[in-house]
Amino acid sequence: MKQVFALLAFLFVIQTSNAQLFKKEKITYDANQGRGTTEYKLLRWGYYLGFNNYDFNFDYNQDLQDIYVKSTTGFNVGLIGNLRINKFLDIRIEPGLLITTRELNYSSTYFTESEPRASDLIREVKSTYIHIPLLLKVSTKRINNFKPFVVGGFSTALNLSSNEDNPNDNSNGQFRTVKNSLFYELGFGIDFYLYNFKFTPSIRGVFGLNDELVRDEDPDSAWTSNINSMKTRGVFVNFTFQ
User: Fold this and answer.
1) What is the mean pLDDT of each run of 10 residues along the chain (242 residues)?
2) Residue 115 carries which DSSP code?
3) How deeply is 190 buried, as exposed, middle or buried, from its count of CB atoms within 10 A (0-12, 13-18, 19+)?
4) What does pTM read for this prediction?
5) For residue 225, what is the DSSP state?
6) Three-class SS state of 26
7) Within a 10 A sphere around the Cβ of 212, how many other Cβ atoms?
8) Alpha carbons 70 and 194: distance in angstroms, whole number
9) CA gap 94, 90 in Å, rounded
10) Rounded distance, CA 111 to CA 56, Å?
11) Which residues contact 11 (CB under 8 A, 6 or more apart)?
12) Is 232 helix (H, G, I), strand (E, B) or coil?
């Protein structure tokens, strides 16, 4: 339902602004209703709404069956601060709140000593990130009323749902992850110049740099002993308004 709503909203914006985007006359971007243009300001502000889909990338110690990650569609919301360098380069910071859930499904081959219960084969990982990326935006020359771009950079995130300090581990049903994570990000999008604001749909991949697994006290734990590293990877689809 979330995906359908996002698609309908996107199509509505494109349909209602079609005459503006593809007319030969360029729109002078002015989000202040005639009180001064913002396109060439040194600093600009905005906000974004969007969706995410997170996964985990595992490296294993032994060649056992892979842990299957069942991901769900999460939600993004945040602010944008944009520093203009020139008409092709911008530096931006995009602090936001990201909510997502991942479900880990283990094979029974991980449990060698006894037949596992059904609840032992599934671990739910809920994440609520305060996500802060620092990005370099590289744009092409403006074509009529739209401008494609690529974006990349690094980010850090504080996981408010982390169980890192929980003394209980998987033996008590608690799968633990670290609080702080580092990522690099790559993506692309298009700026659409409308009369009263600039609308930007974009898609971006995020890739974890550090191991996020907090291991169980038991060195032979069925849930963590075979995992050499567990790193986040994911995709964002954001709709930005400036």
Assistant:
1) 47 47 52 56 90 93 87 93 92 95 89 78 92 95 88 95 87 89 95 85 95 90 90 94 88
2) P
3) middle
4) 0.79
5) T
6) coil
7) 24
8) 39
9) 13
10) 21
11) none
12) strand
Q: Which residues pair with 156 in a beta bridge?
A: 132, 182
Measured in Å, how far apart are the chain's first and last C-alpha atoms?
Answer: 26
Contacts by 6-13, CB closer than 8 A, 24 or more apart: 6/50, 6/51, 6/237, 6/239, 9/239, 10/201, 10/239, 13/192, 13/199
- 164 token code pair: 């890192």
Backbone phi and psi for residue 16, each to the nearest 5 degrees, phi listed first: -75, -20
Which tens digit of pLDDT belongs to each residue from 43-53? 889 999 999 99
Amino acid letter, residue 103: E
Report pLDDT digits (tens) over 97-144.
999 999 999 988 888 766 778 888 889 999 999 999 999 999 998 887
Are the C-beta atoms of residues 48 and 60 closer than 8 Å to each other?
Answer: no
Is residue 237 within 8 Å of residue 51, measured between CB atoms? Answer: yes
Tokens of 77: 């919301």
Q: Which two tokens stand for residue 168?
A: 């209980």
Strand pairing class (146-159; 73-84): unpaired
